[in-house]
Amino acid sequence: MKKSALETAQELLKRRNFSKAITVLEGASENYRESFDYYLTAGTACLYLGDYGNANSYFNQARKIRMTETNLLLGQAVLYLRRGDTDRSLQYYLDILDNDPENKIAIKAMEFIRTQGNYETICNWVDSGRIQQFYPPLGVNPSKIMRIVFSAVAGVCIGLCLIYLLRPQQFSDSGKRADLSALVLSADEMKNPQEKDLSGGVYHYIMSDKEIRAAYDDARQYFQDSRDNAARVEVNRILNSNAAVSLRQKANLLQTYFEDPTFDTLTDNYTYAQVASDPILYLGCWVAWSGRITNAVAEDGSYRCDLLVGYEDLQRVDGIVPLFFSVAPVPEIDGSRSVRVLAKIGMENGNLALLGRSVYQPLQKSGD
């Protein structure tokens, strides 16, 4: 059976024949006006070819159809990273980890941003081509598959063995939360919890051996106590500190077990003043904040507004935070009434922002 233009282009993409893939797709554009796979394939081909303007255009078209596909988010994240917009790039990587907590590219890119994400280093990586390790993966080149099949099989076997030996069990025998016995610090990590050479990174927190060990122990205990917000604060403290790389990796793995809360299950609901004092410490935490909204805009299946935190009684505004909903259906919020939102803390252009999940508005009352 004859392959479609899209199937042909996808095969060409795997073979790293980007120019021909784009030519095939452009010749069949009329047949794929509403195809997410078409725009994603075209955008990825343009990205690898170095046509970043068209890559961005194709990715934006794909996003109008589907917003949370991992390879699309990887493509958009790396475009922002190339431009040095690390805050916007980081938000996309966090979105990836929400849906794919073990995505290696996102984890590696976030570590790069944290330790080497200055503009000069980013430019060097762009010029040298090293930035391509953060591009959406293309898979194995069929032209070379026979040469690598045996090593690939061996790698998979080793990887499965490591996952089995090192990864915590998803649930303990008692039915409680995940068993974190595999995340206990080794004797060497207990003795040397700090990074030995601090010259190659930028650290938001400089902690002593005792403080690092205490933060890690607290994170594990908070998790077992179903206090994921408190655990995430300690994980953030470790990830942005002078803790040893192996210890940060374990902290990173721990956060993949955190669960999204509801209004009823949220614990450790931090105030606006707490979060605004050090947003990095609370990045990824969930909050339930009350107030009123303004500057609301709904378009392309998304909703954006500004939340006037603490202004539900029209007396005082604790702070103004951009609030964004990307879930469908988008919420219907009455700006003339108080509102309570459940949202995840993020960053946009270096400033505090919220990614909304749920909205609650009480029944209309007199004076509201």
Short description:
The chain is α+β, with helices and mostly antiparallel strands and 368 residues long. Helix content is 47%, strand content 13%.
Q: Low-confidence runs (pLDDT<50, min 5 residues)?
A: 145-154, 159-175
Strands, count: 5
| Strand residues, percent | 5-15%
Largest sheet: 5 strands, mixed, barrel
Alpha-beta content class: alpha+beta
Distance between the termini: 66 Å
| Rg on CA atoms, Å | 23 Å
SSE succession = HHHHHHHHHHHHHHHEEEEE
Strand order of the largest sheet: 1-2-3-5-4
What's the oligomerization state? single chain
Mean pLDDT: 84
Q: Outline, from the CA principal axes?
A: globular
Helix content: 40-55%
Number of helices: 15
Q: Can you lay out the helices and strands and say which pair or pack?
A:
Blueprint: H1 5-14, H2 18-27, H3 36-49, H4 52-65, H5 70-82, H6 86-99, H7 104-116, H8 119-128, H9 145-166, H10 187-191, H11 209-224, H12 228-239, H13 245-254, H14 272-277, H15 279-282, E1 286-299, E2 302-309, E3 319-325, E4 339-348, E5 351-360
Parallel strand pairs: 3-5
Antiparallel strand pairs: 1-2, 1-4, 2-3, 4-5
Helix pairs in contact: 1-2, 1-3, 2-3, 3-4, 3-5, 4-5, 5-6, 6-7, 11-12
